[in-house]
Write a structure and sequence with these properties.
Blueprint: H1 9-30, H2 47-61, E1 69-73, H3 79-86, E2 91-96, H4 99-105, E3 113-117, E4 130-136, H5 145-154, E5 156-169, H6 175-188, H7 197-206, E6 209-216, H8 218-238, H9 241-246, H10 251-277, E7 281-290
Parallel strand pairs: 1-2, 1-4, 2-3, 4-5
Antiparallel strand pairs: 5-7, 6-7
Helix pairs in contact: 1-10, 5-7, 6-10, 8-10
Length: 291
């Protein structure tokens, strides 16, 4: 993307843990313990009702109840991973690259629930195979999405379901549109490149998956964007330098750099809203089955 330097694997592995060590508590306080979006059916639904129904949909799509081993990638604080474990007798593993996120996740205890620090870009090194896998609102951070999908394919049993829900860009944007609208929030989120829906289709098919669904959900998640913008303004009302610094998980190590990462989130929220309202950002849902 014009104006954005590609992230090397080393930069990605450094930036992602630091960023989420900085912003995880901010998001939880002003958004939710779930960092992904709710899919709305109608205007009468509350956000909580829509999110609960969204989770039921996702569990059905990956055929959770029949799975012996389930993998949630980029599990964050583990809220959804725990729900998955409560709806199956199978073993559920949540992985995340951020130790700051996992310190919250590991407080959740169930006999069939496990959390582990692991990089999706090195997914092949996980032992054993999985019957279902999902990744919500996090694939956009990966420096090589095609390679990541190939790795995931190698960890799944034949017939296993993979669900990816992600932020994408609209195809056909020119360099100025990308520079003025997408680049500012991408820099705040340490994202090198946003994929398109068609790009994901190609990656999944070339990795041996059979595509079951590939949907653009922008119209059904619009209320999330509006709510996120409102929460960002609410946070601005209550934050000062002292309270902002208290949100940092690893204050000694992150220091002023961590505070800078938190501050960037507010500018990113403004650009995200503009990107959604302009149709530049897309929220996509992909369900595939391992061949």
């Amino acid at each position: 993307m014009t104006g954005v330097l590609p992230l090397s694997r080393r930069q990605y592995r450094h930036l992602m843990p630091d960023m989420f060590a900085a912003v995880s508590d901010l998001y939880e306080r002003y958004w939710s313990e779930f960092f992904h979006f709710a899919i709305f059916e109608d205007a009468s639904e509350s956000w909580e009702q829509a999110l609960e129904r969204t989770h039921r949909l996702y569990m059905q799509e990956i055929r959770l109840t029949g799975a012996e081993r389930v993998l949630e990638m980029a599990c964050g604080r583990g809220a959804l991973t725990e729900i998955l474990a409560s709806h199956t007798a199978g073993h559920v593993l949540g992985i995340d690259i951020s130790e700051g996120q996992l310190r919250h996740a590991r407080r959740r205890r169930r006999p069939n629930l496990e959390f582990r620090r692991h990089d999706i870009m090195e997914i092949e090194s996980l032992e054993g195979l999985f019957d279902a896998a999902l990744c919500l609102d996090a694939f956009c951070y990966l420096p090589d999405k095609r390679r990541a999908i190939e790795g995931i394919a190698s960890t799944l049993t034949p017939g296993a379901r993979l669900l990816i829900v992600d932020w994408c860009r609209r195809p056909g944007l020119n360099s100025l549109q990308q520079e003025l609208v997408l680049q500012p929030f991408m820099e705040g989120w340490a994202i090198d490149e946003l994929e398109t829906l068609e790009g994901y289709r190609g990656h999944l098919e070339s990795a041996g998956f059979r595509l079951l669904a590939a949907d653009d959900l922008n119209d059904r998640v619009a209320r999330n964007w509006n709510l996120a913008y409102e929460r960002a303004l609410e946070a601005l009302e209550g934050l000062d330098e002292k309270s902002l610094f208290s949100l940092l998980w690893d204050r000694v190590r992150l220091g002023s750099e961590g505070a800078r990462m938190i501050k960037q989130q507010f500018g990113a929220a403004l650009y995200l809203k503009a990107a959604f309202d302009g149709g530049f950002m897309r929220y996509v849902h992909l369900l595939a089955e391992r061949g």
